[in-house]
Design a protein that fits this description.
The protein is an alpha+beta fold. Among the domains are: 168 residues, no CATH class; 116 residues, Immunoglobulins (Immunoglobulin-like). The protein has 18 helices and 14 strands. A hairpin with a 5-residue loop joins strand 13 and strand 14. Helix 2 runs antiparallel to helix 17, helix 4 crosses helix 8 and helix 6 crosses helix 8. The protein binds iron/sulfur cluster (SF4) (2 copies). One iron/sulfur cluster binds next to helix 14.
Length: 476
């Protein structure tokens, strides 16, 4: 008995040569490309005056000092919850757009899509449109092919280096780092990062392209769980297009649909699929096939929209001869409203937290081992490490104090009878603090006493505090 051969687990990449297309969605994609790339490449060069002691780069991830600067906002490392909140909002935003508009992220704004689009543009400028590129690909490696390929690769390399280079400028003062890079005096990490990002951009955008989306990215698999019959996605109106001009059915006398089988939709597709075969995981809903088909419909005098943005429920309705629902009814539904409400609530919470945060802060860490020290005079001493933060652009003198229902004395290590500390601009200072209860004070003998340590900037009147406890003799 013969056995079926095991299915092949490897298939060579079928190169895709997308044809040039014009139309509403193509123009929209050009604009999105210009805006996203413009933001990415130019942002590190924007300046923002924060005063004499602070960096003047508008957006800066200062790893050495553990700060993130975004125009007028300065996030310190202990405020990482802002970054976490923004990441959660980005995730929810992705859920929202996917459930409403399918793979709109993939089709328009994903870096892989944007850079691949840019690389294809360069390829088209140098090697010509689809047919010329197919001929070149099939042709022998003669001088002209080498010339075109080397020119194209050089163009890609320039983009790739600029992409890797732009990334490192977010982590240091961009003009200074550029000068250091040119003079070969920058930190090796900068050169290594640029080299890695140059290589990945060159390979992903130039050679792997749709393979990254199909085989490497988990998002196409995950997003299927977020889509439902109301999700708007790109679809072919087969009930209007079939039977196709060249089909066997039409040749046998069946009435012809609107599809003239020109293949324009498939030839412009950047992932190399034919949308007329139905919904496919590879489709990034870039809508270029809509533009291509609308152009064909205009030329043959048929209404646009043979390929269009459609909800699955509309497909069923239209097939049954009913009118589709207006788009807003698909978009505004409980699921998308829930995502929007959650997204807005987190955003409002972050904005609120941003506005109520103080320019001076303290963090109190009580010494736990031992919880208290019995002094020779019978008094009980607790030790605390107090981290003071001056987020202002000038040096400040902070005064420390405590409030409690019991009698407690506060002292600062290394300070003789003074309760102030000078904290330079935009820095933190760690100060050890002693709090003592005399033998006759109740706090010395009871297990724990609540207290609050205060820091006050006398110049501005701003203050901050944190509650903690004082451990008495019974705490052990
Ligand atoms: S572009 Fe339109 S008419 Fe041409 S093959 Fe595609 S669906 Fe048919
Ligand atoms: S089928 Fe159409 S929408 Fe989907 S990826 Fe191809 S061109 Fe873009």
């Amino acid at each position: 008995m013969s056995q079926d051969p095991a299915p092949a687990l490897y298939a060579a990449q079928e190169p895709v040569f997308p044809r040039k297309v014009k139309g509403f969605f193509r123009t929209f994609k050009w604009w999105i490309m210009a805006v996203t790339l413009g933001i990415y490449y130019l942002t590190p060069w924007l300046r923002w005056d924060r005063g004499p002691n602070l960096p003047d780069q508008a957006v800066l991830i200062d790893m050495a000092n553990r700060r993130f600067y975004f125009f007028w906002i300065e996030i310190w490392s202990h405020e990482f919850y802002f970054v976490a909140g923004l990441l959660i909002m980005a995730g929810l935003g992705l859920f929202l757009f996917t459930s409403a508009l399918g793979r709109v992220w993939c089709g328009y704004t994903c870096p892989q899509t944007v850079w691949t689009d840019l690389f294809i543009l360069v390829e088209r400028w140098i090697e010509g449109d689809r047919n010329a590129r197919v001929r070149l690909w099939k042709g022998k490696w003669i001088l002209n092919k080498w010339r075109l390929r080397l020119t194209k690769w050089t163009g890609w390399l320039v983009i790739a280096v600029a992409t890797g280079g732009a990334w490192v400028f977010y982590f240091a003062d961009a003009p200074t780092l550029l000068s250091n890079l040119i003079n070969f005096t920058a930190h090796p990490a900068a050169y290594i990062t640029i080299a890695i990002l140059t290589a990945t951009t060159f390979v992903f955008g130039g050679f792997m392209r749709e393979q990254v989306c199909i085989y490497m990215c988990p998002w196409p698999r995950i997003q299927a769980a977020m889509m439902d019959p109301d999700t708007i996605t790109v679809a072919y109106r087969d009930w209007r297009g079939e039977d196709r001009k060249n089909s066997e059915a039409v040749k046998a006398g069946a009435p012809q649909g609107d599809c003239i089988d020109c293949m324009a939709c498939a030839n412009v597709c950047p992932v190399g699929i034919d949308i007329r075969d139905g919904q496919q995981m590879e489709c990034i809903t870039c809508a270029l096939c809509i533009d291509a088909c609308d152009d064909v419909m205009a030329k043959i005098g048929k209404p646009r929209g043979l390929i269009d943005y459609l909800a699955l429920s509309d497909e069923e309705a239209e097939r049954a001869g009913a009118q589709p629902k207006p788009i807003w009814k698909h978009v505004l539904r409980p699921r998308t409203l829930f995502y929007t409400a959650l997204w807005a609530a987190i955003g409002a919470g972050l904005v609120f937290a941003l506005f109520i945060r103080s320019d001076i802060e303290l963090t109190v860490s009580p010494e736990r081992n031992p919880t208290y020290v019995l002094q020779s005079d019978g008094s009980i001493r607790n030790i605390y490490d107090v981290r003071l933060r001056n987020k202002l652009g000038d040096d400040r003198r902070f005064h420390l104090n405590l409030t409690s229902n019991e009698i407690l004395r506060i002292e600062l290590e290394g300070k003789d009878h003074v309760l102030w500390i000078d904290v330079p601009a935009d820095t933190t200072v760690l100060q050890r603090v002693y709090i003592t209860a005399r033998p006759q004070d109740p706090a010395a003998s009871i297990e724990s006493t609540a207290l609050r340590i205060w820091v006050e900037d006398l110049e501005s009147g701003a203050s901050a505090s944190q509650s903690t406890i004082f451990n008495g003799r019974k705490s052990q």
